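[retry 2/3] DNA-binding transcriptional LysR family regulator: previous attempt timed out, resubmitting with same input.
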Amino acid sequence: MELRQLEYFVAVAEEAGFTKAAARLHVAQPGVSAQIRQLERELGEPLFDRSARAVRLTAVGEAVLPYARAALAAVSGMRLVTDELTGLLRGRVVMGGVSTPSVLDLPGMLASFHDRFPAVEIALVENDPDSLLDGITTGRLDLGLLGLGAPLPPGVAVQVVVDQKLVAVVHPDHELAGAGSVTVAELAGRRLVSLPVGTGLRAALEDACARAGFAPQVAYEASEPYVLGQLAARGLGLAVLPESAVAGAASQLRVLEVAEPALRGRMGVVWRADGPMSPAARAFIEHARRHLPDLGKPGAAAASAG
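[retry 2/3] DNA-binding transcriptional LysR family regulator: success.
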């Protein structure tokens, strides 16, 4: 029995599929299948039910999974202790994120970390907010960058890195184009353009509308803030977006202040507050927190969201 087999087994169990597990492990799918079959031959029992479209653990697989995770954690712990004692910083860190606003110099942060720790491999993955938080809590991701709206899971720490005003933008021919401002109540019944459900901006919009007694009528969604402005510039609705995202289509839009109440969009870096952490991950988190300051409240400390 090899550690690689256990790693592949845990990955297939967590991803509920061989193809997704292979992508996560950056190996070919046939290699994953072959290693799992070898592990099953050694144990004498099937670990996965492959009869349905989705791969599911068998009863034996369910029983074996905690031991496989414990074995991998023990090996990881041995490496952590060794690296701590030798002072060697190497390994791999994984950062998950959603769309990044222009006010954050994420490439600069990554480049400066690489310059300081060239032996550490950095991987970036794009996630929806739920998957990102799941990756943080399970340890598959070392650091995440996401919009803040709904409460964070227990054991997750956060540092706000963006706190900026949200504005409304419309086509110059829109009936509100000359108003200069719009109240949240005036958004009722209007075709809106917004980021998807689960983002911090969408959560702020839905919360404000709920307090005003209605649900927003979102006609179009886009995961990139600048696309929201482009949709509004085409006359497809009133877009609510961060103030920093207006510049891309400013000449084609009319910008309105949002009042009663004013809205703000917040983003934060998040990481697991407890559990084992490699020296590389610890250094990466500390570097990101220094390089990506709280732009809304300078000097604010990170807080646990548990």
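[retry 2/3] DNA-binding transcriptional LysR family regulator: The CA atoms of residues 147 and 199 lie 5 Å apart.
[retry 2/3] clearing retry counter.
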